[in-house]
Amino acid sequence: MKPQKMDGKSKPGVPYGGMTDTWVKKHRLIYIGATRHPFILSIRDGTVDLPAFKRWLGQDYIFVRAFVPFVASVLIRAYEKGDESSGDMEVILSGLGSLNDEIAWFKQEASKWGVDLSQVAPEKPTQHYCRFLEELMRPEVDYTVAMAAFWAIEAVYQESFAHCLEEGSKTPPELKEACQRWGNDGFGHYCSSLRNIADRLLEKAASGSMPLVKVSEDVVSKAEVTFLRVLEYEVDFWNMSCGTAGHSAPKP
Which residues of the chain have pLDDT under 70? Predict the structure, then answer.
């Protein structure tokens, strides 16, 4: 899910002016809920419940394995629908290639924390989120919609864990490596590249340069709904990790 060192087209923290920026501002409340969730804040202030961290570790391992075929499906769409000069395939391929290392990291961390991954069963929020990824792999899902989801999934982790590394944070030393995986500048650049791709595709759809204007409008609307669903699933996943009742994500 999260490559560590990659160059992008813009730096983390640089203001955006595309459609994704409009979405983030429009849906600010839930975006903050996903990127500044109490689970993340507890890591940042050093009060995190370690059993909650272990729960997250096991469940996210399950998620990242389901994430691999999803990213592969986005790569195929980039090949079929993208412009060779855009560099979409190279950016997506760099992310896909990093997932092997990420899975190995989860296994290493699980061993360190005494989590037997072979005995971890997916909880309902994990099942629902993985099923959502499967929905996005269906042939009828537009490349623009899938790309918006891809960016949003990665962006939530980047913004969340980068917050745990900011000046003044009290993140426990034993959790800093996990935060660094997704909170480092290299991953931030990578997320910026994904966002640039999503914005370019959304702009193309919104301009009516797709074959049918009605189809273009539908694509933009579906992409925004998908963005919101990602945020809801992310909040639900954090809630599960810290044992909070009342999961909020839409059920399949």
Answer: 1-16, 208-217, 245-252
**Active site annotation includes 84:** no
pLDDT digits (tens, 9 = 90+) for 15-57: 457 999 999 999 999 999 999 999 999 999 999 999 999 999 9
Catalytic residue among 102, 154, 159, 234: 234
Taking the C-alpha atoms of residue 237 and residue 128, their distance in angstroms, rounded to an integer, is: 10
Q: How many residues does the chain have?
A: 252
The string of DSSP letters for the chain reads ---SS---SS-TT----SHHHHHHHHTHHHHHHHHS-HHHHHHHTT---HHHHHHHHHHHHHHHHHHHHHHHHHHHHHHHHS-GGGTHHHHHHHHHHHHHHHHHHHHHHHHHHT--GGGPPPPHHHHHHHHHHHHHTSTTS-HHHHHHHHHHHHHHHHHHHHHTTSTT----GGGHHHHHHHHSHHHHHHHHHHHHHHHHHHHHHHTT-SS-HHHHHHHHHHHHHHHHHHHHHHHHHHHHHTT-SS--SPP-
Q: How is 167-179 classified by DSSP, letter by letter?
A: TT----GGGHHHH
> In terms of pTM, does the model score above 0.85?
yes
Please, what is the Cα angle at 198 between 106 and 161, to 5 degrees?
35
CA distance linking residue 78 with residue 237, whole number of Å: 28
Phi, psi of 37 (to 5 degrees): -65, 150
CA distance 238 to 3: 21
CB 35 within 8 A of CB 160: yes
